[in-house]
Amino acid sequence: MMPSQKIVCFLSLLVMAASCRVSNSAFAFAPGSISTATAHWAVGPASPCVAYSESSFLGEAHPATQVTLSIRQVDFFKQQLDVCEHIIIDSDNNIRLEHDHDSEGDSRKRFKEHPRCTARFGDVLLHAKNCAITSEEYQNAVQNARSIVNYVRACRESRNNVHPIRKGLTADIANALGEKSLRKFRIRQIEDGSIDAEKSDFTHEQADLEILGRLYYSAIRRSVKYLDEVGLTLDHGGFTALLALCRAASMAPGFESSSSPDCTDMAMLPPNDGARLDAALSNHFNGITAPGCRFLFSPRHGIDDTKVVGRATRLIVAFSSLGNGLVRHEFGGSLAKMNNELLVDGEDINVTFDVLFVADPSQSWYQKDSQGNFDGFREYEQRIHAATRPYDKVSLVGDSMGGSGALLFSHLATESVVAFSPQINLVGDAHVSRCDMSPGIRDRYCTRLVRSVEEAAARRTKIFVHRGVEEADVGHTDRLTSCLFANVSEGSERPAEYVKIIEHKDCPHHQIAVHLKKKGQLAHVMTCNLLGELK
Fold first, then answer.
1. What's the CA gap between 246 and 236, in Å, rounded?
2. Residue 271, Cβ neighbours under 10 Å: how many?
3. Do the beta carbons of residue 138 and residue 132 sit within 8 Å?
4. Half-sphere exposure of residue 82, counting CA atoms within 13 Å on the CB side?
5. End-to-end Cα, the chain, rounded Å
6. How many whole angstroms separate alpha carbon 437 and alpha carbon 432?
7. At 296, which helix (H) or strand (E)?
8. Cα(340)–Cα(428) distance, rounded to whole angstroms?
9. What is the rounded distance in angstroms from the CA atom of residue 8 to the CA atom of residue 19?
10. Distance CA 238, CA 221 (A)
């Protein structure tokens, strides 16, 4: 689901308030700088004195500068370090904000990558400088850039130019974010602010944003030692820059010498501290209390425990979306309603079903595994296959990223698959904001998804894809059907005959599942598609 922008400032203000307990200064980012969808780092328009644009981040010279940073000629880490140095040059040349800006009505755009999943530490700070609405925020961005340059220089001088950061820094941060006491704190926040999964399909944005604010605050507190080590501010801007710096330093040499992080096949890189850090962040920034933060089995979901006897014969696997930036297990409310209606209609507990909730806290379209490596498909497939094996009937359901997951693993279904607004082609899709998901990874995802749908259709599994009329969603379903028809040999049965695209013309946006929920139709649609032969 992609949330509305009505409360896009809420998390920023919440974390800013909390930061007063972390340091004497406020958080160095403006209201509105956190997207509720994936907590993107936001950028506003550069002031006239700022001589950089987003195009300069990608190696193209901005007309207002004399600097061309060609990442085809220098390694990625050095390119990002160069950005930091030019931030300092601007400041030293008195290119700075002359007065505070009024944030109200400020036109802003998001940093294109997820702040917890990017390695572009220089670009993050340049965005922070460009979108600063106070002189303090501007100076914090400059201070962070200066601190990183000085820290890297000192590390290289003391380590014969081998390591750009202290060896072990990334692992130390990962360990700090994985401490047992922090896990207990996270679970307590979720349980205190959680909506009963038996009664709700999706959580409210404000509830998730409040929890995200506390998770950021707790993560920053645990990272104070390492923020101080590098000399970064004790706020969201400093924390984001620290994570990006560690990611960039942890990348394999092949990644550093590529033309862009997006052009590297991260799936082929060996495990490293960067993967450990990614796993620790994924396990901290999510709304799931189940061990491992990914799978939750609910026998006879929603039915009174006293009536549950043995395993059901049917299993429904429910995949999670990005949510409001806090991944949670979804569809609990509608699935519970469906189960109870089956029990009332049949008075036979055997007609009800079990539910396996599946989530991807790394927000990687089920491409990352629990260790932070791009081996997610294999791990999820093995776990889901093992869970589905005892059942006679298996159906899958998901929304957005979860809808993609339902299609990606549709070959494991035996009855039906229901996907709401899934993404088929991740290349260029606005929902995907991980810089480490290279074109190769995204292409393989699409190929594997289409192959899974073909395998499912070959076994005559019914596949229902629901979408509204948003252009991007139409494009995804068109891509799916065109791939299915293209792979059909002459005279063979067309797999597309078992794939039904259902357009809801009254839904102009991406959130088709929420749209149906508001109309009171979600449980009915799921019942018809998932349990058609029973109703």
1. 15
2. 12
3. yes
4. 17
5. 28
6. 8
7. strand 295-298
8. 42
9. 18
10. 12
Strand partners of residue 398: 319, 419
Q: Which residue(s) pair with 316 in the sheet?
A: 355, 395
Residue type, 360: D
Residue 495 φ then ψ, to 5°? -65, -25
Q: Degrees (nearest 5) of the Cα angle 257, 263, 269?
A: 70
Q: Report which of 315, 458, 321, 448 is spatially closest to residue 394, judged by C-alpha positions.
A: 315
State how far the Cα of 296 lies from the Cα of 291, in Å rounded to an integer.
8
Residue 85, amino acid = E
> What does the pLDDT look like over 233-282, one tens digit per residue?
999 999 999 999 999 988 734 333 333 444 343 333 344 788 999 999 99
- Distance between CA atoms of 81 and 79, rounded to whole angstroms? 5
Count H helices and E strands in the chain, helices first. Answer: 19, 9
Determine the 3-state secondary structure of 462 from DSSP: strand
pLDDT tens by residue, 188-231:
988 886 555 456 788 777 888 889 999 999 999 999 999 999 99
CB-based burial of residue 379 (10 Å sphere; 0-12 exposed, 13-18 middle, 19+ buried)?
middle
CA distance 216 to 219: 5
Indicate the helix (H) or strand (E) that contains 274. Answer: helix 273-284
Helical segments of 347-426, H only: 376-388, 401-408
Query: How many residues make up the chain in this entry?
Result: 535
| Cα 276 to Cα 246: distance, rounded to the nearest angstrom | 11
Give the SS3 label for residue 480. Answer: helix
Q: Phi and psi for 155 in degrees, rounded to 5?
A: -65, -40
What amino acid occupies position 437? M
Q: Which among 451, 364, 355 has a CA at the least distance from the CA of 397? A: 355
| Cβ neighbours of residue 217 closer than 8 Å, sequence gap 6 or more | 15, 18, 19, 21, 22
Cβ atoms of 165 and 228 closer than 8 Å: no
> Is there a contact between 137 and 125 (Cβ–Cβ < 8 Å)?
no
What's the pTM?
0.80
pLDDT tens-place string over residues 7-48? 334 444 444 444 443 433 333 333 233 332 333 333 333 322
